[in-house]
Task: structure prediction
Amino acid sequence: MSTLVRALCLIGVLAWPSTLVAQDFPNRTVKFIVPFPAGGPADTISRILTEKMATILGQTIVIETRSGAGGLTGIASVAKAEPDGYTIAIAPSSGLAMNVNLRENMPFHPLKDLALITQVVSVPEILVVNENVPVKSVAELVAAAKAQPGKLVFASTGLGGMPHLAMELLKLTAQIDLVHVPYTGAAPAVNDLLGGHVQLMFADVPVLLGSVQSGKLRALAVGSRKRVPNLPSVPTMAELGMPQVEADNWYGLVAPIATPPAVVAKLHSAAVQALHSAEVKDKLAAHGAIAVGNSSEEFSGYVKSEIDRWGKVIAATGIKIK
Result:
């Protein structure tokens, strides 16, 4: 037997167990970790996705909420889980792209400890002000901030998250001075914004849409490249002359890094099939989320580019989380 034939036989033997595992997968309940409290955008998106994935895979998928440390607790638990495909998670942009540059002691590394299966959704950020703030455009907001540096106060859903860094990017681009008040989630931040305790914020469309539509908050711009269908009259930051202020929150599907490739491929196929279905697209769109479902390679490349892009913003602002 030639050396080449022996090598090919060895490759086949090594790949055989993985193939068998994939053929049998899943034969029991899959645990799906949501690293944020129930009822938030990540939970809503996950329930829409997993309902369809369960049908495609022919197996139950159970959602388990495991919040803490801005989503890192739940994702870290997946990174350390048995790499068999039965523990997967939805992970936010902050956990996969921002915290690498924000924290000195990360409980995992997104590119070394996780299998990046696919980007699930993109969620545009919108810039809003309280209805009593006397500005009706980004230009007026910038002018007001320059006229009274340090007077306008913005809320965020937490230090180092997309809503926070989107505003920091606006501050850098427009060269304005705003005061930051971080909250422990979207609900308390929006409550204080509605109450007038803070004047403005960037946040996910699903978080702010109802208050904008009711007139309690005024939308000035969206951070995505395209206008949001739910708010067609609200311009993009690029349309307003600030293309650098691009801010889409996003979520991805992840598993432990050592999960067999054949199992990852099966999870990827089910997730993409679900995300490309009209049913799931429509349900997500109703909540202001845009279904993606790209290849694992495309998603990995996107995560790398986001780590680099937001790393530059973080370096420029000097933000750190201990």
User: Anything to note?
Assistant: The chain has two domains: 24-123+249-317, 124-222.
